Amino acid sequence: MKITKAVITAAGPDQQHLPLQTLVSTSGETKTVLSLLLDEAHNAGIQEIGIVIAPGTQHEFETAVEGHLEKVTFIEQKQPLGFGHAVLTAQDFVNSDSFLLLVGDHLYLSCEERCCMGQLIETATREKCPVSAVQATHESQLPYYGVVGGKRAPGSSELYDIEKILEKPSPTAAEQDLIVPGLRAGSYLCFFGMHVLTQSVMEELKKSFSKNPERLPLTPSLCAAAQNERYLALEIKGRRFNIGEPYGLLNANLGMALAGPERDEVMGSIIELIAATR
Prior knowledge:
By secondary structure, the protein is an alpha/beta fold. It contains 10 helices and 13 strands. About 35% of the residues lie in helices and about 25% in strands. Strands 8-11-9-10-12 form a 5-stranded mixed β-barrel. A hairpin with a 5-residue loop joins β2 (about 20-25) and β3 (about 30). α7 crosses α8. The model has no long low-confidence stretch (mean pLDDT about 95).
């Protein structure tokens, strides 16, 4: 399985402005969130990117992709019918290929030499099945993420066989159905904002949409994939920044700054600010 295509969803009413926000990258350049996502996708070996956008927003997105325009195909989601529908809108772009799925309101910092997308693509290529990136996350963050339950894959410290998925579960529901042996108490495997999906998942989306054309989430089709084929979760060595959260863009800016060459200066400024605002 070779993954050379990516789809970025950026059409949701609460999401479409977020990829256009700017921040200072680890190299000190001011870039849009979307441009940073495209940089990482390119570094991970992605050659073609489909960006799912709302009608009438293409000009703003063309500006935000900066030097990646020749690799990008814009795909209009004419009606906001859910995350799964946004993914299904890209069917003609991905054709029958496996592809990397990204959300336009997340950024990533890797804790190793390989970028986060590269970690996921390498695993999916090796395992030849759908793989979702996850991270152990405190239960206080459950309202923001999909959460997977399962158990460690034999012989691996970072792969999990997915058995169940719940979208933004309550702490009670997570405690009943999603505890993963080996994780710290109060932590759950939450989606990281990136997946490698196969055509089988797209087929599940088509089936679901034919039954309910008014609203199509993604999670039920992922659950169906977990029941019908091997579907893995990879615990990424890195950190995600959900810029749709309160202070999400601020946290992303701080994360980039602290990973850059001006770390000491930034740390000094943070300490001064903390001292001045007690």
